[in-house]
Write a structure and sequence with these properties.
349 residues, alpha/beta, six-stranded mixed sheet, five-stranded mixed sheet, 44% helix, 18% strand
Length: 349
Amino acid sequence: MLNKTIYTSLMIVVLMLALLSGCGSSDAGSEGNSESADSITVKIGLLKNVTHAPAFVAIKKGYLQERLGANVKIEVQSFSNGSDFSTAMATGQIDIGYVGPSPVINQYVRSKNIKILSGANNGGAMLVARKGSDVLSVKDLAGKLVAIPTKGSTNEISLRLLLQEQGLKVTTDKSGAQIIAMAPADTLTAMKQGQVDAALLPEPWGTQIANEGIGEIVADWNQIPPNKGNYPLTIIVSSEDFLNKHRNLAKSVLLANEDAIQFIHDNPDDTYSLVNDELKELTGKGLDVELIKAALEHLNLTTTIDEDALKTMAQVAVDAGYIKGVSPDGLDLEGLYDLSLLKETQEGK
């Protein structure tokens, strides 16, 4: 009878231990992620630009998969512009990803459901003018038609700042610079046909236009405001919902980003083919390796976030009417950032 009692007690202990072992954290750690016995899907968004090189390398080198863990399925969705990216994040189509800051700021002011977590790249856009347009300097843009990738984009904000520095206004007539939104590939064609006078574009489009003899560089990447090219052009953002539920998975993405930036710094020659391969998958068409090389030389890859530069850009967006319902002095971006995970990754190193 005693043995039966002991046996029963032992079975109860074993059962309790088994139940407790299945009650681990629902979130994954940044090393050897084990979100649960079941797999989880992380939906990552990015833009099809060379300025997103850290994202391309993190994917191609396997850093994202390694950091997130074998039980995490990665789905990559690419976008042609930041507005589409922000809409996708707001509607739950993506969880975390790489994008320019201006559409993110616009989305934050509207819904407060998006967070900036880290930087990825500072700079990498340039102003080019069509040959024969008589645009030799920024001042010459008065009365000219200037293309940007999409309305409200980070590139448009930089263009508006560039015009402000020269005392020029954005207008719908010949009294100032006129802005038109079109995809960079379409801008290249429009320049060939003489339909557009100039453009402020992310790399490698500016370099390509100059290399093909279609146009000339008017303001190089290190002359673009704010901070003469040293401003956040590619950042990592997350939906607030994903961040609240899966902070360690978000941290893993930041670690993969740092891995990729370090690889690019240490192995530039090996980076070109990785970037090209990812571009082929995203767009169906690669780029000349020398073009990728030239474009990467115009990037300042960094995890640092310049909040002052973003505040300047946000104010331009308010003045341009892209951010509604905000007074000139009432712009509050304090809740836009959550840099605590970035701090943890840096302290961990």
